[in-house]
Amino acid sequence: MAVPTFGFALAATTVGTYLPVIVADSAGSPTAIAALIAIEGLLALVLPVLIGARSDRLVTPIGGRLPFVVGGVPVMALTLVLLGFQHTLGPAVALVVLLFGAYYVAYEPYRTLYPDLVPAADAGRSQSAQAVARGVGTALALVGGGLLLAVADPAPFVVAAAVLLATTATFTATLLRRRRGRLQQDPADAETAGGAFRSVGRILRTTPGLRAFFAANALWEAALAAIRTFVVLWVTAGLGLSLVATAGVIGAAGVCVLVGAAFAGRLADRFGTRRVMRFTALTYGAPMIVPFLSDEPALLVPMIPLISASAGIMMALPYAMLIPMMPRAGHGLLTGVYSMSRGVGIVVGPLLAGAAIEAQRALGAPLGTVAYSALWLVAGALLLVSVPLLSGVRGRAS
To answer: How far is CA 172 from CA 62, 63, 93, 129, 175, in A?
Structure first.
């Protein structure tokens, strides 16, 4: 189940992290870079709900979810390759729209297979496994992308496209062989595409637990999107490291992310998902004051394991928190709500970080900060604001 997550994460992280690097000269400002990456979030406000609701209703010999995966992934792969050759903002914008349009067409139905096929009691462990795959894909994109970018600008994008095709093809073949009888969900209670957004509004109005989850998840994703967009520029322009050295630093952080993701399910089973998420938001957000204010290795090095392991836990558990809140039918629609909340964060996080970096430049990097370190102030604040919201995350949609 988790294998495609590796390919999707590798592709999305390659675009979100290294496209800003290759278009930085033509973009002109951090805000323009943030706007480019925010395209993903804007599409997430619309497409996941529509595609999720449609996949609830679609009836085919291979179920309602897989046709979207099979159709969307090749478009993603082709667009990834083309993005590697873009160094100007205009063509990059058009390709990013196409890429993430195909991403949501493919990824939302794939993600919805989890509540379709995995019992709610196993949600924590299944999402921990998926988070490990996501963490491996993210880490390899961050580390390998930097090394490949040092060789040639298109290299990380071409490799990401190849991995995406291979992982989704393997998953699709395996699922068809082993679970053919369970792939078709019951479309009887599913929403039409036209009614999907009315249902989303009703659910958020009448279910306080889901409303609190929507807001909290948007804040978590905003923090992650801010970091993903500007972390390489912080390490290279702020700390002054080469791309090869940057790959080493991010690789060390990536190992810690994987450790956190691997243990997330066990922690959730033992202490409860909501309690673990509340504690992790604090251990993730509060230490970010250090990279905001200092570039001293003696202060930064101890923070890397704590921040990174907390990030791994935060990547693993949000969807596991949502699965027990889902109604019997309409998994695709509720998965769309989850991705809509992610979309809000993906739009807001990079834009807030970009504005903060612009302000930091105008002030001349005050208080001992270095270039791009304002991203940590923004990300930390977003995470800490989410903590009170978790008290209200409970209940089931109807």
So the answer is: 10, 12, 30, 18, 5
What is the rounded CA–CA span in Å between residue 6 and residue 249? 21
> Which residues, other chains included, contact 340 with Cβ-Cβ below 8 Å and sequence gap of 6+?
44, 45, 48, 49, 200, 214
pLDDT at 145: 80
Question: Coil, helix or strand for 385?
Answer: helix
CA-based torsion, 17, 20, 23, 24: positive or negative = negative
Q: If we measure between CA atoms, which residue out of 265, 114, 133 comes closest to residue 179?
A: 114
H-helix segments, 207-296: 208-233, 243-271, 273-285, 289-293
Residue ranges of alpha helices (H) inside the chain are: 3-22, 24-27, 30-44, 47-57, 66-83, 89-117, 123-151, 155-178, 193-206, 208-233, 243-271, 273-285, 289-293, 297-316, 318-322, 331-363, 374-386
Place of tokens 């990174």: 308
Domains of the chain, first to last: 3-178+193-392 (1.20.1250.20)
DSSP state letter for 326 = S
Model confidence at 183, pLDDT cuts 50, 70, 90, reads low
364 phi and psi angles, rounded to 5 deg: 80, 35
Q: For position 378, what pLDDT does the model report?
A: 95
Residue 204: strand, helix, or coil = helix
Cβ atoms of 211 and 391 closer than 8 Å? no
pLDDT band of 397, cuts 50, 70, 90: very low
